[in-house]
Specification:
Elements lengths: L1 H24 L1 H9 L4 H19 L3 H6 L2 H23 L2 H8 L2 H12 L6 H18 L13 H22 L5 H26 L10 H25 L4 H8 L1 H12 L7 H19 L1
Amino acid sequence: MATEARGATLVPVLALLFNAFVWGVSWWPFRQLEGLGLHPLWATALIYTLCALVLLVQRPMAVAELVRTPALWVLVAAAGTTNATFNWAVTVGDVVRVVLLFYLMPVWALLLARVLLGERLTALALARVAMALAGAAIVLWPQGAADWPVPQGVADWLALLGGFSFALNNVMLRREAQRSASARALAMFGGGAVVAGALAAALSASGTASWPPAPAAPWMLGALVLGLFFLLSNLALQHGASRLPASVTAVVMLSEVLFASASAVALGAGVLSARLAVGGLLIVLASMLAARD
């Protein structure tokens, strides 16, 4: 019986690790696609359009539920903003720094849960917020000791916005837990397609970003393969999260920080300094304590 129990737990944990791995190393294919002329926002829009179409083929009735449920439109905006900002940030910024700032998400989730779900703030919860914010201050502190620890450039702002929208995404998933899984998934996939596509079109029209390149096998095949991996990772997340306690899921998903940091340092897309290590440790520890709670 013990062996069966371990096996029943191992598969969901491996599924969550696969999801975290895909997200943790996704910065590399996004950068490769950008090198082929496809901006990360256009890549995100294409990938999530593919995922949404696959879902619609399997669950066409999800459209009607999404249209008649205004609360799910908030999920569309939150999920879309999360994907657009995170994918853009890891393409243009230091990956280690971006991922650490993104994982301030438990701070925003705590505050949003207070507003949207009516959850009370405990002394331990406020202590976790203070710990995470102290870690963020260390990560953001510039080289000049006299300067303030504020975001330094577009990648920092995108990472912070991505973490906030991810927190809103998670809180809305809890708030709308009575909706069907297919409608919630369509809201998240559709959000990734609509928000990233709209932002990409606006930036391209203003000349800030480039329009998608002419059809060519390298970037089209790359986007297709990346979309397949994101679809599989989402299925893995649903499999693991539905079979494990939420606290276990949250802790396992923190392995994304490890996957992202290790791959970025190894491939020269990020630097793990002592300052980043200390600040990141505080942020991750605060997230682990939040998951345990």
